[in-house]
Design goal:
This protein has about 280 residues and is α/β, with parallel strands linked by helices. Helix content is about 35%, strand content about 15%.
Length: about 280
Amino acid sequence: MKKFVLLMLELLTFCSINAQQNAFDIDLWPNGLPNSNGIDKTQPYDDAKLNFKPSIRVFLPDATKATGRAVVCCPGGGYTHLATGHEGYDWAPFFNERGIAFIVLKYRMPHANTDVPISDAKEALKVVRENAQKWGINPQKVGIMGSSAGGHLASTISTHSDSLTMPAFQILFYPVITLNYPYTHQGSRHSLIGKQATEEIANLYSNEKQVTSQTPPTIMLLSDDDKAVPSQNSVNYYLALKQHGIKATMHIYPSGGHGWGSRENFKYHKEMTSDLSAWLETIK
């Protein structure tokens, strides 16, 4: 029995190393930050206090599988922290197996400065496109993905970018879309725009109100019983996308609550990954 356990541990270690062998990290702002959230200029950087250098971790697929597509991933966390595991790094094998480069963004918390996470996300897309040839990526096929508050960041980039910086597609898991009551996630709203934000600012970052004909094709995946971020966020965004002629797909699973990400204990994990995989086949 002991030998079997040791063998299994060795196998798991090998698989983990093999899955990570094409992963590497890149500092987004090697020449200095373009803005500040009030704590990120404090030295030394301290990840425990979420005072870190914004960066990306790049997971490249095997060259024999590469399709030229890439996804920049924005993990959730209510704009107060980052769920980089099940809403970030753990998704890499799924995308790499399908020949898609997967890039996880470690963005800074806003502390009521909206420019901070937005600039980090836009820079991540820029860095990926600048390195596209070296990484086997088609710069016209770089999409964005986000979960919860990360879904708000992803949808913000998809509705507040010009044609040169717009993602090619967006993947949204149980996203915060609106900053308007009653459907907003209050914690995300306060962290992003502050407790005293005006209605004008709240409307500006309520992304169902910012959809244009340039917003990219979208898939949304969520649960009907999500109490943290009501499904109306996605439903209203879907309606806005359709009103502007944007290709949009939405899957609402009967249960699961909020924040399941890539976790296999989500009751509809197999259905969800199958739905996402089928949709990705339409993004060529």
